[in-house]
């Protein structure tokens, strides 16, 4: 009897807390249906924090492609499949262009800068960043030379391994990160530079921590940052060290700035700050500069280097595909000159393999979370302004109605009957709409030039039988990374 009384009391308290925590619930009661939530924990018991995208796919079987899932006390609109994601991000582009904040982002004070901001701040920072990066060569031939130079350094590093097994993680991060360094800091770093190596290790560690189930748990229940603080504190310490590195670079730029001759992204931002110094509402201030530089680094380094690393693993598993790419490289580029962007249109097979790598590895399965910027009607449901939205990229890149064999690595997904390159609108590795990746042009150049240079110079082999190579990712909460592996770069 005593136990019964305790249970009733607990249920009443949980029920009351649920009502308190369901802020402004009447505005949310015309959202699409979804699984029934429990008080406080919402649909936690139906969500696998290590593979949220798989949980959402399972829930879609019962609740359809547009559903409300309660993540803790928050109601989240989950969009599954090409049609729903395209309808939101492209057809209602302005409404779905907001960025939702997880409490972890707020606690880490990451709310300044391009990637996490909203409204006028985001518009100004996005316009400025994209046009400045373009001025310095993003997607144009000037940066092609930098990437070619970096690709040469990268092949030299691989050559030093003399075909013995090595983990390619850090080498690939160096090369990719140096391209962003050239654009943002106006300089590249030597691969032996201790500061640079240290900063990249911090980046890699934070990517791992952000993708761990702990980060997701903190996002749903911020109280856990107090109960299990270890992971959170580590993220914070790493972040502060990275910020110090960036601060030192900004100080150096300020000391040597010549107003009419910007050398790189930081100079351009400092000049804009000067021009707007009389505007009390300006978005061009140090907080936004620090965070935008950090965004470009974080978004630009991990994504591209992980794609290359995953791509090399896939090619070791499928040596016949690797050979076919090498044959195309040999016939179009040969061995006597560096690969160039204009080669791409003559290399449909290589282009198809690169697109298929991006589709298959599905780097950001949940996308970065969006938010509605105003009240809207979506498929007959009322979605209030400020609703968190998950446009599930996994469900687009693996949409069974859009791809012939979504679960297999199949370059034919991007080839027509004559062997020509064919784009598929469901290729949303960079997302779609107004928030589409700001570095898409740069990433595509890097992937093509690095990948072709590596395969022009080496054949990549594993110690393992290709049959036994696992392509399963290690962590899937936020980004997907391949298992740690070793490769042998055999000179051709
Ligand atoms: C293979 C490489 C890459 C992939 C797969 C990738 C993917 C993505 C995705 C999925 C988003 C979220 C879009 C959304 O919210 O709907 C994003 C945003 C972003 N990416 Fe990339 N990205 C890559 C490379 C880069 C590079 C090289 C840069 C650096 C110049 C970059 C800079 C950014 C920025 C700044 C954002 C935030 C944009 C905003 O909030 O307006 N990315 N990226």
UniProtKB/TrEMBL annotation:
Cofactor entry: heme
Keyword field contains Heme: yes
Keyword terms of this UniProt record: Endoplasmic reticulum, Heme, Iron, Membrane, Metal-binding, Microsome, Monooxygenase, Oxidoreductase
Pfam families: p450
One Gene Ontology molecular-function label: iron ion binding
Localization: Microsome membrane
Binding site for heme: 437
Any one GO CC term of the record: cytoplasm
Gene Ontology process terms (BP): aflatoxin metabolic process; organic acid metabolic process; xenobiotic metabolic process
Gene3D superfamilies with a match to the protein in the record: Cytochrome P450 (1.10.630.10)
Protein name as catalogued: Cytochrome P450 2B4-like
Subcellular location, principal: membrane
Family: Belongs to the cytochrome P450 family.
């Amino acid at each position: 009897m005593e136990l019964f009384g305790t249970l009733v009391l607990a249920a009443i308290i949980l029920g009351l807390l649920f009502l308190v925590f369901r802020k402004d619930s009447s505005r949310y009661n015309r959202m699409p249906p979804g699984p029934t939530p429990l008080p406080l924990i919402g649909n936690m018991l139906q969500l696998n924090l290590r593979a949220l995208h798989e949980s959402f796919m399972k829930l879609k079987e019962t609740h359809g492609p547009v559903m409300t899932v309660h993540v803790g006390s928050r109601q989240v609109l989950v969009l599954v499949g090409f049609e729903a994601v395209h309808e939101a991000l492209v057809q209602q582009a302005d409404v779905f262009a907001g960025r939702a904040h997880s409490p972890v982002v707020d606690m880490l004070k990451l709310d300044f800068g391009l990637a996490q901001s909203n409204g006028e701040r985001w518009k100004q920072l996005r316009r400025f960043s994209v046009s400045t990066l373009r001025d310095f060569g993003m997607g144009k031939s000037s940066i092609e030379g930098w990437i070619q130079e970096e690709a040469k350094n990268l092949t030299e590093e691989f050559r030093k391994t003399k075909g013995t097994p090595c983990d390619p993680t850090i080498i690939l991060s160096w090369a990719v990160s140096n391209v962003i360094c050239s654009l943002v800091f106006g300089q590249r770093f030597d691969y032996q530079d201790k500061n640079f190596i240290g900063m990249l290790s911090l980046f890699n560690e934070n990517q791992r921590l952000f993708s761990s189930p702990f980060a997701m748990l903190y996002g749903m229940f911020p109280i856990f940052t107090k109960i299990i603080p270890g992971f959170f504190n580590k993220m914070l310490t790493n972040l502060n060290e990275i910020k110090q590195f960036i601060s030192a670079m900004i100080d150096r730029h300020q000391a040597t700035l010549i107003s009419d001759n910007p050398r790189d992204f930081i100079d351009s931002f400092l000049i804009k700050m000067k021009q707007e110094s009389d505007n009390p509402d300006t978005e061009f201030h140090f907080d936004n500069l620090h965070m935008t530089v950090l965004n470009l680094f974080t978004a630009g380094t991990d994504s591209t280097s992980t794609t290359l690393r995953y791509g090399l693993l896939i090619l070791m598993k499928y040596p016949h595909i690797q050979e076919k790419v090498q044959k195309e490289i040999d016939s179009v580029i040969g061995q006597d000159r560096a690969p160039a962007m204009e080669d791409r249109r003559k290399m449909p097979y290589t282009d198809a393999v690169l697109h298929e790598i991006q589709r298959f590895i599905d780097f950001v399965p949940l996308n970065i979370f969006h938010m509605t910027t105003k009240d809207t009607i979506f498929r007959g449901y009322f979605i209030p302004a400020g609703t968190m939205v998950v446009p599930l990229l996994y469900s687009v890149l693996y949409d069974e109605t859009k791809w012939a064999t979504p679960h297999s690595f199949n370059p034919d997904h991007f080839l027509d009957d004559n062997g020509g390159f064919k784009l598929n609108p469901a290729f949303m590795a960079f997302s779609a709409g107004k928030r589409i990746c700001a570095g898409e042009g740069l990433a595509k150049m890097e992937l093509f030039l690095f990948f072709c240079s590596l395969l022009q110079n080496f054949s990549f082999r594993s110690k393992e039988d290709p049959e036994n190579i696992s392509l399963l990712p290690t962590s899937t909460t936020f980004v997907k990374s391949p298992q740690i592996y070793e490769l042998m770069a055999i000179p051709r």
